[in-house]
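TL;DR need structure tokens for one chain.
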Amino acid sequence: MTPPVDVVLVLLVLTTFLLLASSRLAAGIRIGALQGVLVGVLTLVLGAPALQLEVAVMGAAIIGLKGVAFPRLLFHALRESDTTREVQPFVGHTASLFVGVLMLWGAFLLDTRLQHPAQAVSTLLVPVALSMMMAGLFLIVARRTAMGQVIGYLLLENGIYAFGLAMVRQIPLLIELGALMDLFVGVFVMGIAIYRINREFDHIDADRLSTLKG
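>> reply
TL;DR here they are.
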């Protein structure tokens, strides 16, 4: 047992539930920023006590991008879209929270069928990562607005990163930073897309775009 790691993992689960239950897009961005900071802190905690320079750089980069840069970009897109609340999601927020509990249970069940690497840091790391990935995919398909789907994409990526920490501890720094830059480009493009959608159609309801005819 590693109490600091487990505390961070529990906080990641709580922020995931908050994202599922949140009806305000601004609150979702703030919660996503907090979760991004927690993922960076998880990187640093897993590297302790012999914290190497590349681990410290990676943790700082994650906190800077996911905790500061991405939220600022998304808040800018949100202000331009003039939207504050999620518009009638496909799955309600209370039902989404219930689905989140089921996904967490399913992640623990799936974890019992996986082979873990020797000397696993925490028994919670893999199921928490799996539940975050499932919750991210759920938000992408269950939210109506483009902004809600972007938040789901970030949650999915946080889960993938946490799962990578559990499975492969020694990933070269260059590869990790490259993955972060890919994520940055993805969020940047999504922010531009949200701005363009709102500018052309006066809304960011992605479902209504399916009614367009070529």
